[in-house]
């Protein structure tokens, strides 16, 4: 699969979503019989590409997806011609794709920004497709100018399917050295001809394990072919900055706006936060690619006027406004997704996003993240190598940041098994604003039914209400607290002895985090380390005639991955439960299969605790009467 990430800068990372399947990750519904791509590259970085593909449909579920093939291109810089396309039936008949079955459409990413309509899609619609058919296409693309003059790079990932042939050929000018990172591919000896060098790689079919739950991006550990003429990542950053710096020019209008935003603030960090907050809340994110717009931001002043733009545009406006108040910053090219390592061959493809870095404050800001408080980063921006484009130096985003949850839970159980409850949740740090934003968007019906649906998921018939916290913008960064309260008719089944789950939270809490650690029995791929910081306390109050027959044992764990505690105390007719979980791996967000194996003893102990019960007994009416006699 060819990933043209140059034109997807600021888009979500690919290969980051886990697939739930059998241990063999191969998709048997379709087979690639031939995929051959030939690039003829010129010294200025422009090229032509001939792409030939033949696939076979093996199962009905592949028909709908495969019967339409899309080719994305930038009409300012590229031309794409469909040379030939047809459906080949099992008896050898060919049904050609007619001109009217080739549709030209604008890229759907432009929703809400109709003035930016440069990326387009040619869709090839095959006729009469059925199981057993073969679908063929041959295209010719002309790339008239390079993203970076004099440079070329390309990335290929094999699809998770049976593949007969996957061949990449690069015909380069002599002296334009092509460097490669090629696990899973076989390189041929480069051939010389007429002052040019021809490189060839062929994919080697091998077992393809499914992507495990929570695995990091496939690009970090899987098979791929990366080719590039760049000498270093710093070279990429400086090339990007040659055009990006022009877009961040400070104008009188930008200066006036920046000074208005920071009015009354003298501390540079507070000023930077205020500008970040203003841009996040006032400049809508829209992917806008015009000309070389996949890499070149629009002018900061035009973004200030239009109040929308993509990540590069956000960063250009941030840089201009910060500079207007005396704060220097630089764009930082980053991977937005679950890729944490850079290949040894420098290329831009893995950098699909750009954020702001302020060297004097050692502070990274992502102004496209409108659901977090200023000063925090989205989770998929953390622990990432970045290119600081102003200097061409490498940087690294923080590994961790404050994400703390405190749950407070009280339950009062009556003699008939009904109960009343009160649950309060405190969100501190990066997630605070996300929850606040969610609650801002809640309708009245959402609030009225939330508790009822929550209880129903636990097979409890009940009712309740949500008490929202402070939703004002002034509260941002100060934590967010909300409350759930109500009652349940069948909380426990009394009288008699009964086992009651020893929950310390009503709503999503550390139980879900612990149980989520068991999604895979074993691991063979690096994965995202579980990172949590939870504190929970619960109080269960019982009827006057109840007896607490047994409570779970305390648990205390400390390891390189988990600090976990669970304590149970009987005080004044109540059972008090306190739990805490702090997890992570020092210095990195990536865990290895060896880490997972080392965690298993702790995981079993925590899961056992989360499934524990206390035993409560309320006498039957007959027993009470007999006791009275």
TrEMBL record:
The keyword Signal applies. It comes from the Bacteria. The keyword Lyase does not apply. Residues 1-21 form the signal peptide. Keywords: Signal. Residues 256-329 form the Transglutaminase-like domain. It comes from Duganella levis. It holds the Pfam family Transglut_core. Transmembrane segments: none annotated. Residues 44-207 form the DUF3857 domain. This is DUF3857 domain-containing protein.
């Amino acid at each position: 699969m060819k990933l043209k990430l140059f034109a997807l800068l600021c888009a979500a990372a690919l290969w980051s979503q886990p697939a739930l399947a059998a241990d063999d990750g191969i998709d048997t519904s379709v087979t690639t019989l031939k995929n051959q791509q030939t690039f003829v590259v010129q010294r200025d970085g422009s090229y032509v590409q001939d792409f030939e593909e033949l696939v076979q449909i093996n199962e009905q579920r592949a028909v709908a997806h495969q019967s339409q093939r899309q080719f994305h291109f930038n009409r300012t810089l590229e031309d794409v011609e469909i040379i030939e396309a047809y459906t080949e039936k099992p008896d050898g008949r060919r049904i050609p794709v007619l001109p009217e079955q080739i549709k030209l459409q604008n890229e759907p990413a432009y929703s809400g920004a109709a003035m930016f309509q440069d990326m387009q899609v040619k869709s090839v619609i095959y006729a009469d497709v059925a199981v057993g058919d073969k679908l063929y296409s041959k295209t010719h693309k002309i790339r008239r100018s390079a993203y970076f003059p004099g440079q070329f790079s390309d990335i290929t990932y094999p699809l998770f399917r049976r593949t007969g042939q996957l061949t990449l050929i690069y015909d380069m000018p002599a002296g334009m050295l092509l460097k490669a990172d090629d696990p899973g591919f076989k390189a041929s000896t480069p051939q010389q001809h007429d002052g040019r060098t021809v490189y060839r790689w062929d994919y080697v079919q091998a077992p393809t394990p499914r992507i495990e739950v929570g695995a990091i991006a496939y690009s970090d550990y899987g098979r791929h072919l990366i080719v590039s003429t760049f000498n270093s990542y710093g070279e990429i950053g400086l090339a990007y900055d040659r055009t990006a710096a022009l877009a961040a020019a400070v104008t009188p209008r930008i200066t006036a706006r920046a000074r208005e935003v920071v009015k009354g603030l003298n501390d540079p960090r507070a000023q930077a936060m205020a500008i970040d907050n203003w841009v996040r809340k006032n400049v809508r994110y829209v992917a806008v690619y015009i000309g070389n717009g996949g890499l070149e931001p629009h002018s900061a002043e035009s973004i200030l006027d239009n109040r929308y733009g993509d990540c590069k545009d956000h960063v250009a406006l941030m840089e201009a406004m910060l500079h207007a108040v005396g704060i220097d910053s630089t764009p930082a090219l980053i991977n937005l997704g679950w890729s944490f390592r850079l290949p040894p061959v420098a290329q831009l493809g893995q950098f699909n996003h750009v954020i702001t870095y302020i060297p004097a404050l050692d502070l990274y800001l992502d102004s496209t993240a409108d659901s977090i408080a200023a000063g925090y980063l989205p989770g998929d921006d953390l622990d990432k190598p970045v290119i600081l484009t102003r200097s061409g130096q490498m940087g690294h985003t923080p590994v961790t940041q404050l994400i703390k949850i405190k749950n407070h839970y009280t339950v009062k159980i009556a003699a008939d098994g009904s109960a009343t409850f009160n649950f309060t949740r405190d969100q501190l740090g990066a997630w605070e604003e996300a929850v606040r934003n969610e609650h801002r968007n809640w309708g009245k019906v959402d609030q009225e039914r939330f508790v009822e649906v929550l209880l129903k998921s636990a097979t409890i018939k009940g009712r309740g209400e949500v008490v929202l916290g402070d939703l004002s913008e002034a509260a941002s960064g100060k934590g967010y607290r909300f409350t759930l309260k109500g009652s349940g008719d069948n909380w426990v089944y009394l009288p008699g002895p009964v086992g009651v789950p020893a929950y310390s939270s009503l709503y999503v809490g550390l139980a879900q985090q612990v149980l989520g650690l068991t999604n895979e029995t074993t691991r063979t791929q690096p994965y995202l380390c579980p990172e949590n910081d939870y504190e929970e306390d619960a109080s269960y109050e019982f009827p006057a005639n109840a007896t607490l027959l047994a409570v779970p044992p305390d648990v205390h764990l400390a390891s390189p991955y988990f600090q976990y505690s669970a304590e149970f105390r009987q005080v004044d007719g109540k059972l008090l439960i306190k739990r805490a979980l702090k997890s992570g791996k020092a210095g990195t967000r990536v865990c290895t299969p060896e880490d997972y194996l080392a965690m298993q003893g702790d995981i079993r102990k925590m899961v056992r605790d989360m499934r524990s019960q206390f035993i409560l007994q309320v006498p039957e009416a007959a027993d009470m009467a007999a006791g009275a006699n």
